[in-house]
Amino acid sequence: MAAAARENYYIKNTLICLLKAVEGKVTTVELRNENAVTGRVDHVDGYMNISMSNVCYKSYRGNMTNFDSFFVQGVNVRYVHIPDEIDMRKAMEKYIKLESDAQNKVQKRIRDAAMKKIKKRQEAVLKAEKRQEEKEETVKQSTDKVADQT
To answer: How far is CA 130 from the centre of its chain?
Structure first.
């Protein structure tokens, strides 16, 4: 699922990139209301909304309920346990590299467009100079003919 530009910004410029690394793993999400949800993280978006499956919901009173799927709004997340198997540094570097690659692509496109524009202007200038030379040659020939006739 493709993320919108604003979501991509949040993913690449906040610690949400760590949550993206948790996708596909089993972890616990602690909620602001003292409840906790443990299950497989299916998807995390740029606003920290989390879709989970095979969930065990534990209320602050200790009651447990199982759900096939569960959705946690980002504003309700207090804490997400990052599994030990995830290398946080590599997860963050992955998104930093993606951002760097994206910036390089944009810079290359800008550079290529500028070079194309410069080349087009140079060609236009050369054509204009050539036309000017042809005009001057025509004028010279005309003045030479008039001078020969007199």
So the answer is: 46
